[in-house]
Write a structure and sequence with these properties.
By secondary structure, the chain is of the alpha/beta class. Helices cover 43% and strands 13% of the residues. Bound molecules: zinc ion. Zinc ion is lined by residues 46, 82, 111-112. Residues 46, 82, 111-112 line the site of zinc ion.
Length: 218
């Protein structure tokens, strides 16, 4: 956050990851609410549900995610959402909370998407855009590639999830922002579209969702 405040082309989101949901206390809530008003803090998150490692109990994760969505609605900020791919219940509960707390008034992104096409379409209907990480280049990710090829171009983003999930051929290395280009190139290939078109669209989508200035730096 201090880094974002000091750099014109860096923006921050503030929130509690579902792994740490159980650590959120009233002092933490007050700090987050204050930070959400800091310069170049553009989103709430990442927050969400992760039933894979179960570092926090499910009911705590649900309550903390609901709080984050309520903050976003009150403060008129978009949300960056984490949901882990291997438990269908997590996805259904996430969408339920999103719809109940967001009341159709909040925009968001499903970051590092790993779900299926049907869920992605339901998410789009609920004002959630879908963001793809290096996973889309991984050998085993055929289903995800179908999603990346099928969703409307004006609703998809690309991201690093740095330091994790470096795209092929950098897999296993510390991820770098520059390598999102490889994710865009893969999506271009899947869609039979020019890379420039994917770059333009995903940049515009990120600017729209996070309400970033047209040019971050002169
Ligand atoms: Zn995440």
């Amino acid at each position: 956050m201090d880094f974002a405040a000091a750099h014109d082309d860096v923006f921050a989101a503030v929130g509690v990851h579902p792994h740490d949901a159980k650590l959120l206390d009233d002092a933490g809530r007050a700090r987050i609410r204050a930070w959400l008003g800091a310069p170049r803090v553009v989103a709430v998150g990442e927050c969400g549900l992760d039933y894979h490692y179960m570092n926090s109990p499910r009911e705590v994760q649900r309550a903390v995610f609901a709080e984050h969505v309520a903050w976003a609605r009150q403060l008129d900020l978009p949300v960056s959402i984490h949901v882990r791919g291997d438990d269908p219940e997590a996805w259904e509960e996430l969408l339920d909370i999103w719809l109940a707390e967001g009341r159709g008034d909040v925009d968001g992104v499903l970051h590092c998407y790993t779900g299926g096409l049907d869920f992605a379409r339901r998410a789009l209907d609920a004002r959630l855009d879908v963001s793809f990480s290096g996973i889309v280049t991984f050998k085993t990710a055929d289903e995800l590639r179908e999603v990346a090829a099928a969703l409307p171009l004006d609703r998809i983003l690309v991201e690093t999830d740095c330091p994790l999930l470096a795209p092929v051929p950098h897999r296993g290395q510390r991820n770098e922002p520059a390598w999102v280009a490889g994710i865009g190139a893969k999506i271009a290939e899947l869609r039979g579209a020019p890379v420039e078109e994917i770059a333009r669209a995903t940049t515009a989508n990120a600017r729209r969702v996070f309400r970033l200035p047209e040019r971050a730096h002169a």
